[in-house]
Protein 1
Amino acid sequence: MKSTNKIKFFGDFTTGENYQSGYDVNLRINVLRQYGYDSLMEQVKGFFENSYNIVNLESPITNCTKSGLMGKKSVLHWTDPVVVPSFMKKYGIDAASLGNNHAWDYELEGLKQTIESLDNVDIKHFGAGIDVESAKAPLQETFEIGSHKLNLYVFGGYKYKQEYVEEFDFYARKNKGGVFKLVPEDSCADIHLIKEEDPDAFIVMYPHFGFDLLNKAEHQVEYAKAWIDAGADMVIGHGPHLLNQIEYYKDKPIIYALGVFIFPVNFRYAVNEYCAVCEVEFVEDNGKLKPITRLYPLHFDNGSFTPVTRPVNDDEIEGFISTLTNDEPEIKNRIKVYKGCIYCIEL
């Protein structure tokens, strides 16, 4: 049982060896070789303190060199199985979603190696597995907060995409490993069941959806509202690699995309450079636990070959708020912006 009352959700996380090795070939700067892995975390390591920390691990941890997806899928991710698990553990990552469009890049062997690597350093994983039952199983943790116990459930998985069925065979099935296809028709019944058995459970949907480098799409809105209708308490998305706007539905927050967290790659496009960490703190209120949701605004210079993730500065906060709220007055008036050592936005 965990004792912290703060849970943090981070966006897309990879140390990017597949990209950095390519930069070596093309005479670019390989930040891992030149500056070291710790340089990736230098300005954001404090976010992992005093909280339970969940990331979207957007790379298999594998040394596989062959995949049936080579020549079919445009980009295959991989990270170093010797370095990366201990690197993640060192900074305080407690759980990783594998429910994304890269966890199956090196198919079953790569996924098994990823799972084994995380197990070896006691990092929980969810969102993909060796069959559909293990892939769809949510992360479950119990937290002791004062005199209360909080049962947390976090569902991870990847949206439906036709080519991932027909060309890549990416999704888990009854006797086949893969990523969980996280769509309402395959998950709402599980949300209902959890709430029936444990009405005070706190359920977070943590989907990889949307489109790369774009703002929220229609399917994101449809999925998120269906999950909340089914009983989910909030939706915290990732996938587009940049910050998407927020929305409230039935008085529950929907964060359509946190953006990247650690992702050392040059995206080569002129897109917004904002991302965020989401913190949910549980406090006692009238004899019950009440969630308080905060965002910590970040900047990621995605047009650089040496990208750095860091807190936004005074010149950037207004742009962040504009992106987060889509300049909608109702949402702007609802959020509260605080500044200490860094900016914090309470939803």
Protein 2
Amino acid sequence: MYEGETATIGVQSVPDGYSTSDLVYTSESVSVCTVSGTTVTAVGGGSTLVRISTSDGKFSVTIGVAVLESYNDTSGFTPLE
């Protein structure tokens, strides 16, 4: 992902007795990405983990998120084509 982009976390299954509304999404580093519901927003360059857990904390899984900083070429060179 690049800074400013968003992505949606897809959920394929949940533990027995739970529904997708029982899931809580948290980012370990909000300076890299934020999470609102299933939407991840890239904030700044780096990498972090997003934890998806049941509201009672009995089950959880983590996914890695890498955010690339936007590149601003100030060299004055023209790219080869």
